[in-house]
Write a structure and sequence with these properties.
This protein is of the alpha/beta class and 430 residues long. It folds into two domains: 162 residues, Cobalamin-binding domain (Rossmann fold, 3-Layer(aba) Sandwich), CATH 3.40.50.280; 240 residues, Aldolase class I (TIM Barrel), CATH 3.20.20. Helices cover 35% and strands 17% of the residues. The strands form three sheets. A seven-stranded mixed beta sheet has the order 7-8-11-12-13-14-15. Helix 3 packs parallel to helix 4. The longest helix has 17 residues. The radius of gyration is 21 Å and the shape is globular. It starts with a strand and ends with a helix.
Length: 430
């Protein structure tokens, strides 16, 4: 089959920009579509192309005409979901291809895509399930694939739950990094001028924070990739000096993480790494972080989220402010840069903005990142807060808009938010 996999364009909308002219809340990293590269890697015996509309926003019409796909696949985050439906309509009008959609929004809220312009919805990890769907279609069989629902507009979706395990990672096949080579110069962390390649070493997360959309991707399971496969993928990005491990929790299995560090050392790979790590992992396993520093760990992304225990408890973070501070101290002593993720609640007061800014300064967090608490459909937080949501247009679910009412006057809220971001970017170093 001829299969076209599409990364949607930058399409989220911005309340602070539209209403108040605050245009500083911008995406700072355009990363390669690793999910699509991974899917393509397991579609052996099929002709696959990737179209990255974030880099080539007007490329769909030409690709449909020149490639003539038989299957078109989209990935979508929540803020991209409406745009994907519009793109799917364009495909439907100009092609006879069947249309499949996956990604985080399809996994958390599959009913959203239960519409005429979509044929199939991938719920959760799709590397193996999409392959099973494609094989059935190519052979003329009626697909009945666990983890994939056929759209039934006007009726409730039905599908067989997939019991995810390591086999769904299909470690025997590598991502098709070659399919985006023409875009690779654009995959840069713009504020710091870093060129990054993306590699996955695990999927899912063993924790269940109420705001997070990761758990549905693996039905709550935490899966680690085979060590040799991760090393293979890193080596494939030979011209890329910095590797971003895109796992939600790269060191969720400390034994696996240590084995990977040793394998990288044994292979003589000289690269720098950026990984997501929980603060309690840092505190419990400082020697693991030390070893990773030795093999090239440059920075860690830590979801501190908040600075007090009460709010962390409400988020079901299963962590504490004291542990966060202890982790910061360990990482500073090791010389590992901290990219600190913080969540600003719409009901923040001016005092809370000031306290958060002061915490970041005192703790000397090198690159603070701030998002606005957003109840994404399909999360526990959404169920808890859906009656309070004031903005239901998913285009605004970018994690930089308040879709819940703000305590402060709205313009002031965004001014304080933008000020935190500006201060963080000014002093940023990774």
């Amino acid at each position: 089959m001829r299969i076209l996999l599409i990364n949607p364009p930058n399409c989220g909308r911005s309340i602070p920009e539209e209403r108040y002219g605050i245009d500083s809340l911008k995406q700072i990293f355009r990363g390669e579509p690793l999910a699509l590269e991974t899917l393509a890697g397991n579609l052996t015996e099929h002709q696959v192309e990737i179209l990255d509309l974030k880099v080539e926003p007007g490329g769909l019409a030409e690709q449909l005409q020149s490639f003539v796909p038989e299957l078109v696949g989209f990935t979508a985050m929540t803020c991209e979901a409406k745009t994907v439906l519009k793109l799917a309509e364009q495909v439907r009008q100009n092609s006879s291809a069947q249309i499949v959609v996956g990604g985080s929004h399809a996994s958390c809220d599959p009913e959203f895509f239960n519409q005429d312009v979509i044929d199939w919805i991938v719920i959760g990890l799709g590397k193996q399930s999409l392959r099973e769907l494609v094989d059935a279609l190519a052979e003329g069989r009626e697909p009945a694939v666990p983890g994939i629902a056929r759209s039934q507009p006007g009726a409730k979706l039905r599908w067989q739950t997939r019991r995810y395990n390591r086999a769904d990672l299909v470690c025997t096949t590598a991502p098709r990094y070659d399919l985006v080579e023409r875009y690779r110069p654009e995959y840069t962390l713009q504020t710091l001028g870093l060129k990054m390649g993306l590699v996955a070493s695990a999927a899912g997360c063993p924790y269940d924070c109420n705001f997070c959309c990761i758990a549905p991707l693996t039905d709550g399971r935490y899966l680690t990739a085979e060590i040799d496969a991760v090393v293979r993928d890193i080596q494939a990005l030979e011209q890329t000096p910095v590797i971003r491990l895109v796992d939600a929790n790269s060191f969720g299995n400390p034994t696996h993480a240590l084995q990977l560090a040793e394998a990288l050392a044994a292979a003589g790979i000289k690269k720098q790494y950026l990984a997501d790590v929980r603060s309690d992992t840092v505190v419990r396993h400082p020697d693991l972080l030390k070893r990773w520093k030795e093999v090239g760990l440059r920075a860690v992304v830590i979801g501190f989220e908040e600075i007090d225990d009460k709010t962390l408890g409400v988020m079901n973070k299963e962590n504490s402010a004291a542990t966060n501070r202890a982790a910061i101290d360990i990482l500073h002593k090791l010389g590992i840069t901290i990219v600190g993720d913080f969540i600003i609640a719409p009901d923040y007061s001016e005092q809370q903005f000031e306290q958060l800014g002061e915490f970041v300064r005192q703790q000397e967090i090198e690159l603070p990142m701030y998002t606005v608490l957003t109840p994404l459909p399909g999360t526990q937080l959404y169920q808890q807060m859906k009656q309070k949501i004031s903005i239901h247009d998913l285009d605004y679910y970018t994690l930089t808009n308040a879709v819940l009412p703000t305590r402060l006057e709205e313009e002031l809220f965004y001014q304080r938010y933008a000020a935190l971001l500006a201060e963080g970017h000014k002093s940023a170093k990774v």
